[in-house]
Design a protein that fits this description.
Elements: H1 2-18, E1 27-29, E2 35-37, H2 38-43, E3 47-53, H3 60-71, E4 81-87, H4 94-103, E5 113-115, E6 134-139, E7 144-150, H5 157-178, E8 182-185, E9 192-197, E10 201-208, E11 213-223, E12 227-229, E13 236-244, E14 249-256
Parallel strand pairs: 3-4, 4-5
Antiparallel strand pairs: 1-2, 3-6, 6-7, 8-9, 9-12, 10-11, 10-13, 13-14
Helix pairs in contact: 3-5
Length: about 260
């Protein structure tokens, strides 16, 4: 009986260990030479659907399912849900990955971010092990893993879509609570956005949906209701990250017309 109980306890411990819910952070440069830090992108309000591929024929169905799930949100949540792809071991070049995407009609290269993953910087090992392909859905300030499947189980557009919807709902509820005292107006605007917050503001960072910083304003002594001008920025969705003098961080989505 003791032996049976010990075996059961071991199995339970292994199951718990594999039920990972928090993504490890990483910083990597994509095939367009843009640097990405996972936690920064999740903190800015993005939902990331990430897939590792070899690339191989068996990876095609899962890649298409993940890409199509992301694209289904392109109109309702522009720039919110992003499709990231990486070579599993970092030994396939950007051109090989891009050609594989095009040859197998996975989707438009302009709607995805590809990493050659040199040096295996974005390691599958931190996301529960290997599989080809391997799809995860990541979301939220808590850096949650909402979906994590491998191999043929990734041919699952409904499941990936459901995970994205969960992420959107969770972020909306968190933002409503977190940003109750923060407002930005007018929104949308052609140029000037006024930040209204109860405490003095120490820093304002404005980023595009791709994570590019377009404004970084620091107020050494704190500013009350600062004004941000985006007159020279292209029309689109941006995120305003506000840090108050107490270190509290809030993020608002804005639209530049």
């Amino acid at each position: 009986m003791k032996k049976v109980f010990t075996s059961f306890a071991l199995m339970l411990a292994l199951a718990t260990a594999n039920a990972q819910t928090t993504a490890p952070n990483w910083t990597a440069t994509d095939c367009n030479s843009v640097s990405h830090t996972l936690y920064n992108e999740l903190d800015s309000g993005k939902i990331i659907v990430f897939i590792w591929v070899m690339p191989c024929a068996s990876c095609v169905p899962g890649a298409k399912a993940a890409y199509n799930a992301v694209q289904s949100f392109a109109t309702s949540h522009p720039g919110k849900v992003r499709f990231y792809m990486a070579d599993d071991l970092g030994d396939a070049s950007c051109s090989i990955l891009s050609n594989w995407v095009t040859t197998n009609t996975i989707g438009s290269l302009s709607n995805m971010t590809i990493f050659s993953n040199a040096g295996n910087v974005i390691s599958e090992a931190g996301f529960g092990g290997t599989g080809m392909p391997h799809v995860v859905v990541l979301s939220g300030g808590d850096h949650e893993i909402l979906y994590n499947k491998k191999n043929s189980l990734t041919n699952d557009q409904p499941g990936i879509t459901a995970a994205i919807n969960t992420g959107i709902a969770t972020l909306a509820a968190r933002d409503l609570k977190k940003n109750a005292t923060l407002s930005v107006s007018p929104n949308p605007s052609h140029d000037v956005f006024a930040v209204s917050y109860a405490s003095a503001v120490e820093q304002v960072i404005v980023t595009s949906v791709t994570g590019q910083v377009v404004r970084n304003m620091n107020f050494e002594k704190g500013a009350v209701n600062p004004v941000i001008s985006l007159g020279d920025a292209a029309p689109g969705i941006y995120f305003i990250k506000v840090v108050d003098v107490n270190g509290k961080v809030m993020v608002k989505e804005i639209t530049k017309q």
